[in-house]
């Protein structure tokens, strides 16, 4: 049996056909065009899925289903993407119903970070742990929570929406209206935005961290604060959820130990439970594919 995984992001949408072991048979990516009506984007995703199935001679009876990971807020009980800040035109979109009109297979919607958590739990650095937290720091920020080997989705699928907990109001207003949300301060989008303001030219997140490693004075002063706030957020999550391990994925995590070492240092100093101060904080093993693999694996649970 196979499953289709779809990982809808703010800049790109990943699609894959995955078997029960988590092996990817086929994958592709689409640009997430946030300027067009969501129905057109969903139609493009559906057409791409159909073509992938044809190309690999996979009939519907060979599919366990289609799993969709998407940024929240969601209402998974109604199969809807409701108000994602990074997809401003996507309001109350009945994406599960749209797919069910085109495919006679089960369709499941979950938060994108939750889907990635499932993949890391089964196939990545979360193997062997029954309580873990997966954090993605990319265009946005979110988390997936595995507790006692079960995915915690919450009432409507929005458990783990940590991107909108406040870490530093001095950074100004987030897209959600609050001041200083984790996502507004520490996401790749935020780092590129603020670094560009500091240097007076357009700078990517990767370039900002390159300047940080080169000890650029202005960027170092700025990113020291950002990484400190990441440590603050991770410590709050450990205090709240008591995980055995924290796995950090997403584009910003690719910076590596430049990021991980100071976060671990903050946790070691400030986590309330002394026994939790050595909680493993590790990079995602599946990197950018965790979301799309996890979305597919949802259909085998």
UniProtKB/TrEMBL annotation:
GO MF, one annotated term: N-acylmannosamine kinase activity
UniProt keywords, alphabetically: Kinase, Transferase
Superkingdom as given in the UniProt entry: Bacteria
Database matches in Gene3D superfamilies: 3.30.420.40
Protein name per Swiss-Prot or TrEMBL: Glucokinase
PANTHER family xref list: BIFUNCTIONAL UDP-N-ACETYLGLUCOSAMINE 2-EPIMERASE_N-ACETYLMANNOSAMINE KINASE, ROK (REPRESSOR, ORF, KINASE) FAMILY
Family note: Belongs to the ROK (NagC/XylR) family.
